[in-house]
Amino acid sequence: MHDLIEQLAARLPLDFRILYRQFLLRVIDLETLSIQADVTAFLGQFAGILIMLSLVHATFNYVGYTVFTDAAARFAFCQHMAHYQIATTMLVIGLVTVISWDSTFPDRRDVMVLSPLPLTPRTILLAKLCASTAVLGLAALSLNIASGLMMALLMGAQAGPAWGFIQSLPAWCFTLAAASVFLFGSVLTIQGVTALLLPRRIFLRVSAFLQLAAFGLFLGVYFVQPSLTDPTAMAAPENQLILGSSPSYWFYALFNQLDGSLPREFAWIADRAWIGLTVAVAGAAGSLLFCYVHTMKKTVEQPDLVPGAGGLHWAPAVGNQLQTAVTHFSLRSLTRSRQHRVAFAFYLAIVLGLALSLLRSELERQPEMSLEFVIATFLIILFAVAGLRNVFSLPISLTANWVLRTTQLRPSPDYVAATRRALLVIAAVPAWLLAASLSLHVRPTRQAAFHLAVLALAGCIVTESCLIGFYKVPFTCSYLPGKANIQVTFWGFLIVLLVLIVPCAEFELRALQSPLKSCFMIAALAATLAALFAFNQWSAKDAAIYFEETPEEVITTLGLSV
Predict the structure, then answer these.
(1) Based on the domain organization, do 391 and 339 belong to the same domain?
(2) Residue 443: beta bridge partners?
């Protein structure tokens, strides 16, 4: 099989193969997700995580199927899990598409490097498109390699052990492929139409907000939409709007149509999938062709970092002049730089997902202070602050750092205080306000107010913890490849946090029942915050603001003995 693939690849043009390899290594930005500057290692780890999730889903499907003895209950369980896996696959494909937001369209570097070469725009387009679809295919295949086979087996068992599997497996594979192509084509269509209609300078600004909006849309639909796989629920008049506007239900109906189990009265839902897939493919193909023909020459005229627009601007003060300058510089770096925007959106996706999941669960039951509520709100504020701190380490426009070096007129503690203010204003305060809005319906009100006070102190504590050893201006210091390893940092932080946050949440719930314990917990958190603040102030007095990450000096010996 491997030899056959190599023979087929050898028949492709050499320039296409070279471009494909280079674009494949650039689908995931090295500056954003750096693992010792090795994208193949990252893709391997990414596939490994999805394969593990696929095995978990397959095990759960099998166990859940064997629990039920009634045929109708088994069929209902399979239908529910089929929609769940289609929606999960669409979520993963959507997030991967957003992370590789600009990887399919030509950027300034592509135009400057490839334009003088004897390459046609068609070759560049096909190479980029194949590289992007290869990553999406890897994600879809890894996520469904075990669960997809199990789902086809279980669905096929309803019609017969042999014939049912032969019919269900192709239907399942086609449905997942169609759903992935629909999402990928829809995003490309929106990007292409926006790039064609707007000037390059305005498009760069709008693209940033479209990318963040796509993150929120994919997660919001996944966590908020209800499960409507029961025929009675699908036939209810109040659910027709959801069924007609949710792509996951379109392709769920498409799978049942291909599998032969879709009632005729729901055929219109499957028709939406066919129409959406056709429109997405046609729109993506048309927008890509027009962009490569008409906009490639324009990309070299505008920088990747959007310059500030002219006119009168009002920037609200968030402290003294230095604190205001660093905060606004950090905020504008996040909104104008793609790699920083994607990295921070990765953490915000977790925050938004937790918030939406929590909101949905709270609306479905009588809201009360529970362990799940406490843990989720803690994770919201901690992920927001820790995510911004990790993004702070990634540089932006290093050629302009001489401006900040020559204007360092204040002592180091002032710069640490400015970084603290940026973390609080951009991450901690918005996350706390989000948690506070989720706490409005929690009763009793006294417990909700106490939890918000604990949450505010926890946000300040994690902010001070992030400032330990951080003696630089955000986004201005170079970093060594592999040092800002956001993916490994994220998973390590998550594992450690989950180990510590559960006993802390349990202790808070016990403290809510006793005013004495409540006061003790508040006092302990305040003392911890004061100690961390004093430590950072004391450490910053002897620290120097630096702008260059230098590797540690390692003395290598030859190991020769006399």
Answers:
(1) yes
(2) 368
Cα–Cα distance for residue pair 411/386, rounded to 1 Å: 25
Q: Is 482 helix (H, G, I), strand (E, B) or coil?
A: coil
Average predicted confidence (pLDDT) for the chain: 76
Model confidence at 513, pLDDT cuts 50, 70, 90, reads: confident
Contact 520, 511 (CB under 8 A): yes
State how far the alpha carbon of 196 is from the alpha carbons of 35, 109, 211, 215, in Å: 35, 19, 17, 22
The model's pLDDT over 420-466, given as tens digits with 9 standing for 90+, comes to 998 998 888 988 988 888 787 777 778 888 888 999 999 999 899 88
Q: Which of 354, 515, 532, 383 is nearest to 450 (CA)?
A: 515
Contact 536, 467 (CB under 8 A): yes
Please indicate, yes or no, whether residues 22 and 130 belong to a single structural domain of this protein.
yes
- Alpha-carbon distance of 535 to 528, in angstroms, equals 11
Q: Is residue 306 part of a domain?
A: no
What are the tokens at 223? 């966590």
Residues 6+ apart with CB under 8 A from 439: 377, 448, 451, 452
- Cβ 158 vs Cβ 50: under 8 Å: no
Question: How long, in residues, is the chain?
Answer: 562
Decide if 460 contacts 15 (C-beta within 8 A). no
Closest to 426 (Cα-Cα) out of 332, 499, 556: 332
552 found inside a domain = no
Domain end call among 248, 266, 299: 299
